[in-house]
Please model this.
Amino acid sequence: MKASFNNPDAETRESTIAALHVALDNGVTLFDTSDIYAPTWNTFGHNETLVAEAMRTHPLGKSAIIATKGGITRKPGEVWSRNASLDYLLRAAEASAGRLGVEKIALWQHHRLDPSMAFEQQLENLAGLKQRGIIEHIGVSNYSAKQLRRAVEVVGTIATVQNQLSLAYRQETDVLAVCEEFGIKYLPWSPMKGAHHHDASGELKAFAAEQGASTYAVAVAWLRSLSPSVVPLPGVTRPESVLDAIRGLSLELNGEVPVSETLPMDAELLSDQPKN
Model:
């Protein structure tokens, strides 16, 4: 995602592809993108194309699992909205498959709920989308525990949920319990919030120094300690960042990680909630 916002230059593009290649070299098999990750409205799908290029130019790329998302719209003038109609989701998934260069998307995730449509109707549309055969597995994003449980009942098997989760944002941790109950993988978005150099607390920096690791690696290790269902997916644009994140997978934390008071739920997520 990072390489597709803020008008990325050629150097950032090449660095990101190199980072994804390093990830493949080190055994990473799941890569997450979205049709909405792009510098402008008329470059929709920019990141999907970038990820596809990285996979195509590496010997292990064909064996990777590429996850993408749909359900957010972006129009001229940078007007952002939501659309969970079956027709839109089907067209979005077909377009994503084309950009990724696959006949069937391994993991497609409902990116955001549509506040103009009843929740149950959105779930029925997700089920209908999967029935079309263009998607292997369905995931959801920004669902509450109650909504996730209902999604399992209506859609069937849900492979993943992407909600925000980090050292600085720990809302709705009850979603983890639902994931563990149904074998759903939890893919935190913005997993490094609170661990960046500019927003990490002095306590966290000191703790990381005691571990002989970076705050990034500590954040990954902390997320993994919450539940075996958690699969951190940090955004990277440099090979060094990849190796740093991978370090967190094997890091044994000695002591309790200092966390600050959790941030409130994003207003945008609240406004996305269906009225019924």
